[in-house]
Amino acid sequence: MSTQTSAPTAQPISIHIPHTLRCYATPLHSFLARNPGYHRVVCSAFIFAPPTASQSNLSATDSRLLLVKRSAAEVSFPNLWEIPGGSVAEEDPTILHSLAREVFEETGLRLTRVIRQAGEGIEWTDNRNGKERKWLKLTFEIEVVEIGSSITTVDGGNVERYFESIPVELDPEEHQEYAWATEKEIREFLDEGKGREIGWKELAGQMLKAFEVGRMSKEEAMLEDETMRKY
After folding, report:
1. Which member of 26, 55, 98, 182 has the lowest number of beta carbons within 10 Å of its beta carbon?
2. 61-to-2, 51, 54, 136, 192 alpha-carbon distances in Å
3. Residue 8: which H helix or E strand, with range?
């Protein structure tokens, strides 16, 4: 578990997008026009270390997922754990550019590849000034420059040093800590309510599914992708 006190100051973006996700390489207004039931869109990221497609010396069972703990000053869900992400902005060129921006602002990690969409999206409604709005949260598994396949050994394969070597930089106005969570830890929270409290149980369920997909062969994962995408 770690903390940081400074936010990133630059935002380089270089994204590889698979053909199956080109529908999200579109501006927010275009997406909402095609999906008129929604008013707002949020995007978030599953960031695994090592990446599921990497050649790291760590095995699939060693993979961990990046979680960030919301600031105690947050009006909504203070002190709860989540994954990096935020609202898709009209000024961003595409939804996936919003994803890259949010990941960088919140963690200092630079998105380089979108692997797959995770789940079908989480929907909810709110009511502001007497007007109901419907939200859609899209989650993607991604890879970042700072966790590339070139990282194969750290201190002779020391697992903890491997995770400590990843340069996560939090925005202290939004998050107070980060952690690399194991599948077992996520499952213990979902089944028994133990450990780090994740803001949404539905999100915790998506996390477990993402761990499962990460263990699949490339061919199996491609088939799974087809069943996981809603759009």
Report:
1. 55
2. 22, 12, 14, 31, 21
3. none
